[in-house]
Amino acid sequence: MKFSVPIFDVKNLNFVVKEQAILSNISLEIFSAEYIAIIGPNGGGKTTLIRMLLGLEKPSSGEVKIYGKKLSDFKEWYKIGYVPQRASHVDSSFPASVLDIVNMGRTSQRKLFTPLSKEDKELVHDAMQKMDIIDLADKMVGTLSGGQRQRVMIARALASKPEILILDEPNTGVDVTSQKKFYALLSKLNKEDGITIVFITHDIGVIADDIARLFTINQKAIICNNPKQTLSCEEMSSLYGIDAHLLHNHKHEH
Amino acid sequence: MFEMFEYDFMQRAFIAGIIIAILASICGTFIVLRRYSLIGETLAHSALLGVAIGLVAEYNPLWMAVIFALLSAWLIEYLRSAFSIYSDAILAILLSGSLALAIIIVSLGGAFNNSLFSYLFGSILSVSSEDIVVISIFGAISLVTLLLFSKEFYFIAYDEEVAKTSGIKVNLLNFLLVSVVAVIIALSIRVVGSLLISALMIIPTIAALQFRVGFLKTVIFSLLIALSSVVAGMTLSYYFSLPSGATIVMCVLLIFILSLIINRK
């Protein structure tokens, strides 16, 4: 492969809650400029995996390395843009204009005693332009549609100039037309800006053609390096069934 | 109307009241947005425990209030992060625990008198020059801290996890914010009283939120609402011989109701 040090290097990751395995023996790598989709049934552990990559959840065993470093030693968090699942369900009374939210993307890198610099403001403006939300700058987030909010959240992530964007089910509550536009946009960020994209979805049907790799997470991880081929093969579609069956048996044993 | 300023105690009360209005409303914005409104109530009761110890042991009650409110704030943050107890349950436990202990200490020490009463409900007559000095110094430190980290506190209030993953030291800043709140609460109980200070912290922000404006405007609205409530409350309290804390809270409540009416859909 043309890439050297992976952005994320996950080895033998296990996560057990109350003696029930949520994730078993997951090993995977995410390289720079990749375009990866993570799919799997609800409750299969997709979000848990992402939370472990970001250090929001501690694994029961195994190791996560980020840019070759342990999570606790990693300092350059601005390189990671994270858009959580609930991001598009903002509390409508939260006092935030679109600009307030996108400015947050610069907060962790500003120096004390200084307001946002000219460069910060330019980065915020660029991010808003990319997401086509300049016109919405002064609107309150609570008044936006699902699709607009989603673009605001991504603009916030982009404002920190990330090298990787991690999106957890970004399309929840967004209409189909907006979804299509959205995937086109992700693809553009990946191809033109070289940003690594990792996104979770539980809807295989919407996955765009240009996904480079596909991770299927259902307690275990199955990594497909050629998603188009794999999606059409029976092995893939039976994966859901087999694992659902396993889970079913598991419940009866207790 | 300005004859009341001929009295030194009224001048002191106004200075203290205005400082407290500024501090309480600004830190209140972050507390409300973090859904931590009840922390003020709990810290006020912990501050009262400090006052009780101060009265009985004859230390300066204001200093003791600051120390105990701080200890309580740190305990709350520690329990919240180290154990899986609901944060509202932690607040309820510490609130009643502090109050119970304060009452026992005061009754054992035989100090259950007007002095404690004035800390419960606030008393503009009791603000001393030394109180003004303490309120100004700690108030200035608290205000600078709030302004310095306002963008971080705002981000954390909006989404703690995303703030964390963007590299903001969330745990440290959470401790800092509750410490500032503790100090402000302890300073305020002289004027507004421990049973009522939480209202001055929370209600101006909730009233300001009804206008659905951006963050900066919300903070400014909240500040103006707190300031006008304190000034109106103290003036009314002087002319009609009403208790200052309660009058201030009634004023802020009135403004809150007005904000609901103005912004109703």
Strand and helix map with partners:
The complex is a heterodimer of chains A (254) and B (265).
Chain A: E1 8-17, E2 20-30, E3 35-39, H1 46-53, E4 61-66, E5 69-70, E6 80-83, H2 98-107, H3 118-130, H4 146-159, E7 164-168, H5 176-192, E8 196-200, E9 213-218, E10 220-224, H6 227-232, H7 234-253
Parallel strand pairs in A: 3-8, 3-9, 6-7, 7-8
Antiparallel strand pairs in A: 1-2, 1-4, 4-5, 9-10
Helix pairs in contact in A: 2-3, 2-4, 3-4
Chain B: H1 8-33, H2 39-57, H3 61-82, H4 87-108, H5 114-121, H6 129-148, H7 150-158, H8 160-165, H9 170-188, H10 197-209, H11 215-239, H12 244-262
Helix pairs in contact in B: 1-6, 1-9, 1-10, 1-11, 2-3, 2-4, 2-5, 2-9, 2-10, 3-4, 3-9, 6-9, 10-11, 10-12, 11-12
Please explain how this structure is put together:
The complex is a heterodimer of chains A (about 250) and B (about 260). Chain A is built from seven helices and ten strands. Chain A has about 250 residues and is of the alpha/beta class. Chain A has a six-stranded mixed sheet, sandwiched between helices. Chain A has a four-stranded antiparallel sheet with strand order 2-1-4-5, with helices on one face. The radius of gyration of chain A is 19 Å and the shape is globular. In chain A, about 35% of the residues lie in helices and about 25% in strands. Chain A has one domain: 3-Layer(aba) Sandwich (Rossmann fold). The mean pLDDT of chain B is about 90. Chain B is globular and about 50 Å long. Chain B is mostly helical. Chain B has one domain (about 1-260): ABC transporter involved in vitamin B12 uptake, BtuC. At the A-B interface, β6 and α2 of A face α7, α8 and α11 of B.
